[in-house]
Amino acid sequence: MSLLRAAATVGSLTLLSRVAGFVRDMLIAAFLGAGALADAFFVSFKLANFLRRLLGEGAFNAGFVPLLARTLEGEGQAAGRRFVEEAFAVMATVLLVLVLAVELVMPWFIRALAPGFAPGTLRYAAAVELTRLTFPYTLFICLVALVSGVLNTIGRFAAATFVQVLLNLVLIAALLLAVSQGWSVAHALAWGIAVAGVVQLAWVLLAAARAGMALRPRLPRVTPRIRRLFALVLPGTLGAGVAQINLLIDTWFASTLPEGAPSYLFYADRLNQLPLGVIGIALGTALLPLLARHLRAGRSEHATHAFSRAIEVALLLTLPCAVALVVSAEPIIRALFERGAFTAADTVATAGALAAFSLGLPAYVLIKVLAPAFFAREDTRTPVKVAILCLISNVLLILVLIGPLAHVGIALATALSNWLNALLLAWLHWRGRHLAVDARLRRRLLPMLAAAALMGLALWLAERLLLGLGPLPLLAALVATGAVVYAVAVQLLGAADHRELRAMLRRQA
User: CA dihedral defined by 508, 317, 150, 225, rounded to 10 degrees?
Assistant: First the structure.
């Protein structure tokens, strides 16, 4: 399967998941709003979401996929299955111990994760109770990530990606059931996260069995190959997931701000994650096994072409998303969330965070493309060094910006630190001459930027000319305006050719 076609498969199913996620978030906003109980739930959900994004959306695969690909190609399917079973047994054991330990110390755990939630307050008590319900999800989603890596390695991208949809469907069902029965929405959602983990794991295990990789239970045993796996996975997880680690840091600081700040950041991040999931994660997931095969076979020209096309598609699709989210942040938030318990003041506060987050959107997506190029060569050290530097820069930027800008300063610091991450990774690729970008990408970069700028100007004008429309009609008009202007601009300026995109989607490796 070609890179773009594999990415399209992952991206389309991720889009389905994000759409379901927006339905879920609109319901949460309507029934929880942005108060104390919402803050508590979002802190509990942040940890589960963090691990889902970090492990379930590509970072675990950074170490696992190249090792599994090498085993399958060099030793056959039986050896590959044995490796997966050994990794599953060791990971399940370690995670079970971790979950039990954290459950026992949950009050202190919440104090560390959200120090601004003072003991004796509703936010603190609810956060402890809700996180006790959601934390077992950690066990399930990490095992889901492992089995999803197996499915990606053997080319079953659809089965691995659909697992994301299941989480949102279970949470929507839990929320609707709670509303119909008069139960606590926050508690129903927390239970729903735990149940979703079981459903997701059952799904990927069944998909693996249908693909000829049925897994049998084994006793945990640390073999040399397992030691090599975790030596790669631990630093690789940090390197690929620095954007998500920064979001946990955001939560830590947001808990020290007045009530509502964690909720504003959560809702803004959810919108920012839509293009990141559909574009960045899809490209990164499809690119890693492709690069690993090309580099292992010595096909450097093929690797360069795949790398350049991934960056080209990432920028072509991400730049307009970033510009639109910055220019039209308030109309977007108003149309999607402002109803029920979510007020006009909540809209303004969330829109500020969305605009700040979105300034870094191209960087978030580029990291998902640049990091796998290191991982494909089994180099996890370099992204880790960059990640540590960027984590430190994020904290320092938050300390500078949180005073004058409150929660918006937290979002802006995250965007700036991720730009630093992306630029450093790109510079290290260039300096080491590991993977270059081709002339076509260099030629099209400025036209892409110009097309996105023209689209931003069109959105700014349209928003002011159509102020009399309601929130949803205005949003629909802005989406249509942006899509048409950008599509025409990229063709006229030579930033892309729709015939080439169609041909790449059809092409088989």
Answer: 110
